[in-house]
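Assemble and predict.
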Amino acid sequence: MAGNWALSGRRQALERRGAIFDNIRAFFRERGYLEVETPFRIPAPAPEANIDAIPASGWFLHTSPELCMKRMLAAGYQRIFQICRCWRAGERGVRHLSEFTMLEWYRAGTDYLGLMDETEELLRAVAGAACLRYRGCSIDLSQPSERLSVAEAFARFSTTTPEAALADGSFDEVMVERIEPNLGIGRPTFLYDYPACCGALARLKPGNPNLAERFELYLGGLEIANAFSELTDPEEQRARFLAEAAQRAQNAKLPYPAVDKFLDALKDLPDSAGIALGLDRLVMVLLDAQSIDEVVAFTTEEL
Amino acid sequence: MYTAADLRKGLKITIDNEPYIITHFDFAKPGKGQALYRTKMKNMMTGTTLERTYRSGETFEPAHLEDRKMQYLYKEDDHYCFMDNTTFEQVHVSEDAMGDAKNYLIDNLPVDVLLFREKAIGVEVPNFVNLRVTETLPWVKGDTSGSDSKPATVETGYVLRVPPFIEEGELIVIDTRTGEYSTRVKG
């Protein structure tokens, strides 16, 4: 009998996790995607106000493979996906691990709406059932998913508006306490069209510069993925990064070096969309796990 | 001084000069948003509960509690009785204030009794306690899956999940911080 009961007890979960990963890779290969690998240790991450990278020998562990994958996209790789470890400082809870596994994919010639459809198809392909049960709620994958704008979600579940919540600093609280628990119940929810300031690397909606073409996928109240139509204007991207860096400085957060090679490559970025999906969380939903700890071999604390 | 990143279940902090214990903790971070530390806590003096959400960078004073080494004597009505081994002074702690610690109390267990303004308001048990299994289903021989667990009752009446090979009468080690089975006591 194995001595480490906690670890041997996760065998079933880890076997199912492995099978889910196999299905994901098969899904993308069938659609002509190339599986790529980009370095984990990079000179600088994208300067996002609320995402903190872990320093590693003068550089940083990536918080997402986004910058390198978009440089590949700009170099003509039209359909790419990657499954890799990412690191975010200080993130730990029943839905967070500081080191976690991300699935990212990027596609030229589409926008965030096209990615919603593809994400829906991915869910059906890997679920192994038409209906999921997660934390006592059912999630029907056989019907079209719910598509709810951020403004509609605020109107339906809160007593404020996104603009008012951003102005008084309560946007994140309203999201976590009022809105998120109601998303992805009964069927998946795509929450879309975020206020422009909530998508530092997203394209603004043509005809409405107050909104960013960004969506998040929710299953059973759990945030699973974040996507956007990619911003392809280097000058605008540079200005957005400066704004995010200023916010980091204001909050006394570690400054990051500039990401000039990424910004230079943006001029060649085709119209495209990309998505980052937390694979540990997807496995949590598919296995009806209460904690992210149940679906990984080792948590940080167990090392 | 604690920061929001230190918050976790069981942490004791001071709010408005009174000691509170965190009873529920949840780390939340809406996509691209800021980290939120959601807590439910209990006033250790009055038992009243409070829900509060904190952000990165907020700081807290630890609860200023005196802890005194005592041992568990017995339970009477809804109070638990402990004795200071050097002064032989006895104190009572209400069932409500015991929290999960009551799951691990066996005769003479050494504990830290927490006092605030000379009133006993809580008890801390050792991180690991050895308790005897009083009731569990026998192991079905030949089941080597290793991935199963079964319920077991220990001598305090507490019920937890244990590996299938644990038998009645065995002594097991429980991690009192999680309430979970840790290992069996050999021999």
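The helical segments of chain B are 95-98.
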